[in-house]
Each structure stands twice: as C-alpha cells, then as structure tokens.
Amino acid sequence: MPRAKIPRKSTNIDMTAMCDVAFLLLSFFILVAKFKPSEALAVVTPNSVSSKIAPDKDVVLVTMDKEGKVYFSVSDNNKDEKQGIIDGVNSLKNLGLTDAEKKAFVNNPTAYIGVPFSQLKGLLDLPADGWKGIKMPGIPVTDSTNNELRDWVAASVTAFQGTKMNLLVKGDDAAKYPAFQGVIWAFKKNDQLKFQLVTNPVGAPVGSELDKLQQKTGSKSSEQ
To answer: What is the pTM assigned to this prediction?
Structure first.
C-alpha cells in the first residue's frame, strides 16, 4: 500500500513575543545603567606606552592643571581615611572646621581641594553642587616656606597608617615646572619617595620591544 505523502510546509515562527522581551530588556538596561560622570577636573595628560594600570582604591591624587594650579583629592571609597585627613589638617592648622564642614569633604565624591587653608572653610560651606565649575586658585606649593601640600600629604600618611597608600600625580602636559617641583618637595618632606604618574595610554611604537611583548602576550597599553 503506497505511503500517504505529507505536504511540506515552511517553518513559520512568530517572533513578536521575542522582540517584545528584547526591547523590554534593552529599556531596562538603559534605565539602570550608570554612565561614567565627566571628570570634575579635566587635564590633558602626557602620552605613555606603559602597560601598568593605575589603581582606583586607596588613592591620594595630586593634580596639576595647565596653569600650574595644584589640587588634592582622595578616592571616595576611603571615607575613613578622608575623615582622618580632614581631622588632621583641621587640628594641625587650627582651622575651626565644624562637623558639617568635615562631612562635606568626606561625602563629596568630587572633592578636589584646590584652595589655601585660609579659604578651605568657605569652600566646605558650599553645597556639593556648588563645587562644580568653581574656579579655585590652587593649593600653594611654589614657596617652600608656605607649601601647604606638605600638610595635606602629612595628614594622608597618618590617616593611611597601616594601609598601603597609592600616591598618584596627574599633571597636564602643559603644567608649569615650578608647580611640579613644589609637589615633589612636599612628598620628600613626608618621606614619600615613590609615586605613580597618570598618563594617557598610547600604542607602543611598531617593532619596539614593548610592541613585540604586547603582541606575544596579547596585552595593550593602559593608563598608568
């Protein structure tokens, strides 16, 4: 008896439900994603082919802009250390800061300090949003008799005692040399002879030893 031939039909899958789910997931990720905020203090760092990545924890950062102004900041995940630093400079310089003013330094994630101690109290009285866009004169460093960065570094060393402190310097490519010299002097006065320079990562020259090493290991240059 001959077999009955079953007519072939093209496969047809309704993707409507799948598309709905895909758009819902996309909308969810867009709504919950946290975009990287713009830097509170933008500087153009010099290029470097170093493959070492700069740490993002336990960081004390000294920044120099193109005008030679010096700023001081601490990574936001070190709130205990930030509290110790602001307590230390308040006691050392007899600034008379209130608890609210100290809290402003500890809790502000973009707390770049770029003013002399005489103006610090007024800066900390500003709301967190008031720090953005404010033009600061910078921390005095060029005069060795009034190098206030030395006191910030001293307070940092004490606050990070027992913990490794990652001391970073981020300088604009057009920064003035006297400012850099003042920063190094402040470090030396606190026996901080090791620090890292933050630079702009670029590819190693083609054919260089570093280029060959990166090709062999599959690694790329990163910010140092």
So the answer is: 0.73
Say how many CA atoms lie within 13 Å of 59 toward its Cβ: 20
- Please work out, in degrees rounded to the nearest 5, the angle formed at the alpha carbon of residue 36 by the alpha carbons of 35 and 39: 145
For the record, the structure tokens of 165 come out as 């402190």
Write the pLDDT tens digit of every residue in 126-162: 887 777 778 899 999 998 889 999 999 999 999 999 8
Sequence-separated (6 or more) residues with CB below 8 Å from residue 82? 74, 105, 106, 111, 159
* 224: amino acid identity, one letter: Q
Domain boundaries, the chain: 57-200
Calpha distance 191→187 (Å, rounded)? 6
176 by Cβ neighbours in 10 Å (0-12 / 13-18 / 19+) ranks as: middle
Q: Contact 104/115 with Cβ under 8 angstroms?
A: no
